[in-house]
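A reminder from the course coordinator: this example appears on the midterm review sheet, so study it carefully.

Given structure:
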């Protein structure tokens, strides 16, 4: 082999090593991009989907309003399968309204009784929250009636006088004001107490999640 041939062979080998190095670099870069993509997808999934109290939520938007969505199917009295979509404004993982025990829905009639002497109307979201809860019950095939917890005011307004003590055979939800927002449940009576910060929407959402989660765990009631 001549000296020129040796030099040419070394040059070719050097060129081949350079090409191999470039190919390895490209492959390595592609692998890194794939890992970044998969990692990003997983992070997005973690941020937009999660499980809470046995319910699978997805973070979504309606217009510019961020919401947390969970849906379930149930069978109505006419054997029709109905899908209910539950939308929450507050991330249920961050909704820290205390609730002392699961709320059991054992009858198909529910009273929503307002304590109008406790300045519920002082909370701007009261009508929205009460209406949302009544709609939640109705869409899940519960008969809903409204009432007032003060007898004289109920007579004056032409409404039913309703308290937990008066109605001990149907579900009663009393909504009143108090020192802190919390939910107390015993038997067929549930009291939604709204504190000075007027967290009535959070309280109603906490209550809805509790009802659905309990129904799911018992595999009866709301969930089909």
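Designed residues:
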């Amino acid at each position: 082999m001549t000296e020129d041939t040796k030099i040419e062979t070394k040059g070719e080998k050097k060129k081949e090593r350079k090409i191999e190095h470039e190919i390895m670099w490209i492959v390595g870069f592609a692998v890194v991009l794939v890992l970044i993509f998969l990692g990003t997808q997983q992070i997005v999934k973690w941020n937009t989907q999660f499980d809470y109290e046995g319910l699978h939520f997805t973070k979504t938007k309606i217009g510019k309003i961020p919401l947390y969505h969970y849906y379930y199917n149930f069978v109505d009295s006419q054997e029709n399968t109905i899908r209910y979509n539950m939308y929450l404004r507050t991330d249920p993982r961050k909704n820290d309204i205390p609730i002392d025990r699961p709320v059991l829905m054992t009858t198909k009639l529910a009273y929503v009784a307002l304590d109008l002497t406790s300045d519920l109307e002082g909370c701007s979201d009261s009508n929205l929250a009460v209406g949302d809860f009544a709609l939640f019950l109705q869409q899940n095939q519960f008969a809903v009636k409204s009432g007032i917890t003060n007898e004289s005011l109920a007579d004056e307004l032409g409404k039913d006088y309703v308290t937990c003590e008066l109605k001990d055979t149907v579900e009663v939800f009393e909504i009143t004001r108090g020192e802190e927002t919390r939910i107390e449940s015993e038997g067929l009576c549930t009291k939604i107490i709204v504190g000075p910060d007027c967290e009535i929407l959070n309280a109603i959402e906490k209550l809805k999640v509790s009802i659905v989660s309990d129904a799911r765990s018992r595999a009866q009631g709301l969930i089909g």
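The first helix runs from residue 3 to 48. Helices lie at 3-48, 126-139, 151-157, 200-218.
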